[in-house]
## 1
Amino acid sequence: MTEGRVRVLMAKAGLDGHDRGVKVVARALRDAGFEVIYTGLHQTPEQVVNAAVQEDVDAIGLSLLSGAHMTLFPRILSLLAEQDATDIRVFGGGTIPDDDVQSLKALGVAEIFTPGASTVDIVEWVRTHVGESAVSGR
Amino acid sequence: MDNSGIDGRVATLTERLLRGDRRAAGRLISTIEDDSASVEQIMRAVYPHTGQAYVVGLTGPPGAGKSTVVDELIRVLRESELRVGVVAVDPNSPFTGGAILGDRIRMMRHAADPGVFIRSMGARGHLGGLAVAAFNTALLLDAMGMDIILVESVGVGQSELEITGAADTTVVVIPPGMGDGVQAIKAGIMEIADVFVVNKADHPQAERTVADIRELLRMDPSPPDWLPPIVRTVATQNQGVDELWRVVQRHRQYLEQSGELRRRRKRRVEREIVGIAEVRLRAQVLNPKLATTEFETMIDQAAERKIDPYQVVERVVPRSSDAGR
Ligand SMILES: Nc1nc2c(ncn2[C@@H]2O[C@H](COP(=O)(O)OP(=O)(O)OP(=O)(O)O)[C@@H](O)[C@H]2O)c(=O)[nH]1
Ligand SMILES: [Mg+2]
């Protein structure tokens, strides 16, 4: 029941046109009781962060394949800071090299799921790292 | 700030909201969705600053193109430099209370526009009902300075009728090729539709649907002094939505000049008050009694035909001296 109050924005950044993966995760989160705001393909960091603020989500899940992760994630984090919204967790998925995963985490990205991760893993991570803190933070 | 804790947090957020702060608006909408106790505090601060915005409801069957029409309307309104709030209500929550809210997808080109604020709302856990939550959200957007508020809601079921019933102008979006579908949803829509949109007018069945709606309007025994216009749109190709906005403005003028706008808004406030009172009555008077073992026992007895349901009610909520009044 508490998860019913947790909102997650799911977006697909970058130029490639596939959103199957992000949709699968969105459905899994829905089935786990989360409210998912899906914003579709080709999202810019500005669009993502503004939508996240308006929707007052607890987390942003960003899927990307384009290789621009080292610019997109930091941009999202700094826009969140500008909007007084650093409590919104940012997680992501994509083919991202280990070294970059470490750098992104050091910058403040909460978690990165590489292609081996299952939707079960992702749902479980959201439940423990977003769900509980979001509820207690209210 | 001499306030502390929750009250202080809400007070600060409310001040920020009234200055147009979007982060505060987002947070406060969640607060009114989640927490019945703070709603009173928020409303006391915010309500005097509302009543400025004009609220347009859009409803219609799934996939009719409502969100695409809303996206186009935002464009039209922004060209006139009007600030636009959107409440996109999706009452479907299949199970587990979870939901995927996707209306925003069609409106993402406006996401970073500071003159636009879009909020999606699912069905779960609104104490006072989804319609009240949507209505309160519209009030907050009004208080933060939005000129026009668009409320999208799918379907024409009872709760959706209530949602759009809170609008000043209600637009019913119908896709072509509904056939008997138009007939089927007529009961609900005839009373609420101020304007009809036949969207997807690029579809060959569109003219047929326009004719069907016109026929239904003709069958209405008491022609009202506002006959709902039918606007054709192709929202995906920027067609007809400028005309739709002109028609909505004409309706607004009609409402204002006839005094109907004031009557409508008064009725809306009355419904809101009665709704809030009902929720409180139920919570304070009824729910505690329904949660007792005595009540359980009485249900058993009624099921076994030892007492009848009216006797149970008499014991739970005795007919009081009020009854004669
Ligand atoms: N051909 C055509 N397709 C349209 C038109 N308007 C919308 N669509 C398409 O219809 C589909 C549904 O559009 P939406 O705007 O999401 O419809 P909706 O009524 O908001 O849908 P729900 O909110 O899910 O009930 C999308 O694929 C749109 O691109 C139109 O005028 N012509
Ligand atoms: Mg929609």
## 2
Amino acid sequence: MYPFTYHQPDSVRQAASVAGKAEDAKFLAGGMTLLPTMKQRLASPANLIDLSKIGDLAGIEVKGRSVVIGAMTRHFDVANSKELQAAIPALADLAGMIGDPAVRNRGTIGGSLANNDPAADYPAAALALGATIITNKRKIEAEDYFTGLFETALEEGEIITKVSFPIPAKAGYEKFRNPASRYAIVGVFVAKRGSDVRVAVTGAGASGVFRATKIEAALTAKFSSKSLEGVKMPAEGLNTDIHADAEYRAHLITVMAKRATDKAK
Amino acid sequence: MPVVSMTVNGKAVSADVDPRTLLVHYLRENLRLTGTHVGCDTSQCGACVVMVNGASIKSCTALAVGLQGADVTTIEGLAKDGKLHPMQEAFRENHGLQCGFCTPGMIMSAVDIVNRNGSKIDEKTIREELEGNICRCTGYHNIVKAIAAGAEAMGG
Amino acid sequence: MTGTGIGAPVRRKEDFRFITGKGHYTDDINRPGQTHAVFVRSPHAHAAIRSIDASAALTSPGVLAVFTGDDLTADKVGGLICGWMIHSKDGTPMKAGGHPALAQGKVRYVGDHVAVVIAETHAQGREAAEKVKVDYEVLKPVVDMAEAIKPGAPVIHDVASDNTVYNWHLGDKAAADAAFAKAAHVTKLDIVNNRLVPNAMEPRAAVGDYDSGSDAFTLYTTSQNPHVARLVLSAFIGIAPEHKLRVIAPDVGGGFGSKIFIYAEETVCVWAAKKVGRPVKWTADRTEAFLADAHGRDHVTHAELAIDEKGKITGLRVHTKANLGAYLSTFASSVPTYLYAPLLSGQYDIPAIYAEVDGIYTTTAPVDAYRGAGRPEATFVVERLIEVAARETGVDPAQFRKKNFVRTFPHQTPVIMCYDAGDYDASLTKALEMADYKNVGKRKRESAKKGLLRGVGISAYIEACGIAPSAAVGSLGAGVGLWESAEVRVNPVGTVEILTGSHSHGQGHETTFAQLVSSRLGISIDNVSIVHGDTDKVQMGMGTYGSRSGAVGMSAISKALDKIETKAKKVAAYVLEASDKDIEFKDGKFSVKGTDKSIDFASVALQAYIAHKFSGQELEPGLKESAFWDPTNFTFPAGVHICELEIDPQTGVTRIDRWTAVDDFGEIINPMIVEGQVHGGIGQGIGQALHESAVYNESGQLVTASYMDYCMPRADDVPSYNVGMTQTRCPSNPLGIKGCGEAGAIAAPPAVINAITDALGHEDIAMPATPRAVWRAAQKSIGLKAAE
Ligand SMILES: Cc1cc2nc3c(=O)[nH]c(=O)nc-3n(C[C@H](O)[C@H](O)[C@H](O)COP(=O)(O)OP(=O)(O)OC[C@H]3O[C@@H](n4cnc5c(N)ncnc54)[C@H](O)[C@@H]3O)c2cc1C
Ligand code: FES
Ligand code: FES
């Protein structure tokens, strides 16, 4: 690692103020992405602002027709929240599929969404559920939030504080894991709210998470995996790497979408 | 350099550390607790797993400075009063280790698995829960057996 | 069998320190005043070095020195060696290019060692290493073997203008050709044996130390064979004469072959310790391990099997291209030749075999022995051919094997080996039974109802272990003898120290060797300690690999124990006032035949040292003996593994449903440990078959340089294994042991692929059979079905 100055603010305001003043600053949440990158000297922030001592950033709350999750809520707590399991079981299920137990004990929803790894799981949920990303400055709709590979609408020094997920009628998530890294090769989140069906795909897109409109159309007609028989996703715009080529990913999207639909609760 | 104080294996420890110091290096270099190992650079192998405030974490992916006041248990702190922890016993009894390099992390993860899942865990769950611990020697068979047996023993 | 003697599943003595975090691995060692070595590695697969400018690095904080290949040359430090001479068909010696520890004007793979920075801390070393400016003239990489041997391909080493190390062969070509000319059926296969990275969980490490007072070096290193390391570092590389170089391999966290070899890093650390006058430490990070540990396998083979009208095999022809990487690692040349082709007869009576092997340089990491070394590659060829031949001729694969098994022993194959003992039928019969083979059809139908494809695959493997008779391997080109040494030190109180040249890095020698002593001397295993891994303590030894510690290492101990018994009987005779011819030794007691006079082992030990009962002229005091055991033959463990699996054709995911292993390892010292070895081997074999593959892209970058891309099998990738045994005693050593360390890794890959191809209904799949590959292959199956 390159040297850095370490900060441990105890409020969001203070964190933002440090970020505003310090040069080349980065926030540290669970560190499960940032620290390995720093260890490999791929990231070298001069200032590291640890968010872990900010009390009110963690927690899960059902508020009316939404579930609001604090940015510093660990994957483990999301996976095991009774409220969430009742309100949006698919989201709890998704959190339980991230990495391994020790990763889930540290990694946070805010860190994952800020990082926007194209193979991460949360972006699929955020996009399909129509989440709102709440920062210390504003509210960003998921539609506008994910802007490319590891790219988001966040500005320099902007801190995610909460994420609000509207409660769907039914939702399901299915993930085809990369056998080596266990991130998603293809992850499909399907959500139905009224007549609105949204299907978001992570892991597969060459420019990150996206909505599979073809599958949405088929499921809107009838929300059943049977509707997806014969639905072929195009391979254009999908990733090819040593683990999976675009054609295979395209095929897996439909398979995962079917399985997510079958699982949807 | 910031001062970090924490409790490691029941003992209060305090030291000036470079902010870059990872918990695993703090344990290995400053405290000479070399039972916690490093097996990868990508936070995947689990050779470094320790307990922090009762939950398993990868000590290669945590800054020591961030763990002010934390209660840390390493493999060296698992046996109590000269008596092996039931999970340690189970690994020995079931030949759950060969070269021993992955073993400290495996045992710490195993204890965490039982803490979270209770003492009756089926093989499938154990295997899934071991996702973050790689062993190259045992083919996992006896590790899985050891954890099942250790879980029962921990349950009473 | 006593509670802790031979055959008992004794819990391991070494475990206490490992389960309590008290093991002592190389990286746990810190020497006073220690500095840290960080290597500057080549980012290019192939490049000429125009210049190295270390000035900025030298002024970087904490830096003591930066060394390059020139510094090694100036100190007359020699290059790394390959210790096995192979001759080509035409009689010419192999073309071994120089292998400098730090580059001499050229780099030949990504990760190749260019320079080393010695600094106060690792972090400072790393910072400085980034400041070493190397001016490279980038040359065209040669990653693919087929490209490497094309005329006009870039030349990697000047000595080998066609990038070919050797064109070697074994067997009788005319006889094999004749068999094919008469064959009723010929099965042909093109086979790739995928390149693997051994990935012992403990990364390699070294601490070099130099004591100017005695002009002596100490090297702590992650080695499977510290004495061989000392020999090579002394006699060939020229660090220091052997009596001035102590090599210590403490607890070692797995090896699987990769820690046999003498690498650049430990060479540089021990040499640099004198240069900077302080201890020098290096520990690989995982990326370095991926880049610069010797890789394994990487064969491309065309193989053909000739069968007569009665379904008997009459001939085998094999042509293999073996990727040896950029340099010849310590034993690299032997792996695809003498450790491979002599096993091509498998468990079968094959009258004519001819094998050709081309060893090829590429700009990739050196390739050397990895668990099984040559034998998994041979078994994969044989067992795939057999399976496909059975399918093509419409015979049940189990029956086809039975029909062709070797049934009388000793059996001389046409490819060097003389199998001494075995009962291949017994293992297959038992395995079929345990696997409930007869009901596979029913299970297949049940899977089909769920939309899944079920397949079953057999692998009947043989390996040559207990390497090896020194004169025999010498005649085949080995640079060293492959005996083993042992010393038995009996202390005056009757406790025993065994000094062995074998080295344990997970095999449990502290337990199994103690069991042997316990059985022989009738003392508790708690009174036996095993000393290994230190050249100052153990006089000489050849180390642990090739499943040799039991068959060779323990045979040496057994021989030394014979001498102890003889001597102790003499002592007992004096004490009991009888003739030593009348002394009997049983259950730890020496007694005079036909009387009730006796004395226990500990008392004899004491008397041997007190030496009051005999004069030093009649009998030397003390009780300590040593022995060297040179094997009389290889040993031939063999067995049958059966894999049954289910494929989800929608995703291509393969799930192994059951694994049956029946192995014949001869005598078993500790069944618990033996089963553990089998499990571990199967795990690695499944890894090779389904998950693992070292991939270089066309520019020679290793794409799979971390666990993010190199798929290590995890607990949920493998099943529980059902392990059984059959037993024929090995006649070639006193203990009847054959060895068990590599069996699983050898047996597993063809069992998996035979099962997958059975499920798919066609043979078109290569290793690793990843979900994507299986999905594609399943698409083809669907196509084939539709066409029927
Ligand atoms: C072995 C392993 C396996 C994994 N497997 C998966 C997987 O299967 N699926 C998956 O989705 N992920 C996986 N991850 C990633 C994991 O989920 C991470 O926890 C997550 O991506 C990042 O969260 P973090 O809290 O650790 O963030 P950090 O690593 O601390 O930070 C990540 C980035 O987000 C920024 N950031 C963090 N919090 C905020 C905030 N509140 N506001 C603004 N910016 C912020 C940081 O500055 C940094 O740039 C894996 C990680 C590991 C190590
Ligand atoms: S060293 Fe921490 S996960 Fe590998
Ligand atoms: S026992 Fe060696 S890596 Fe697990």
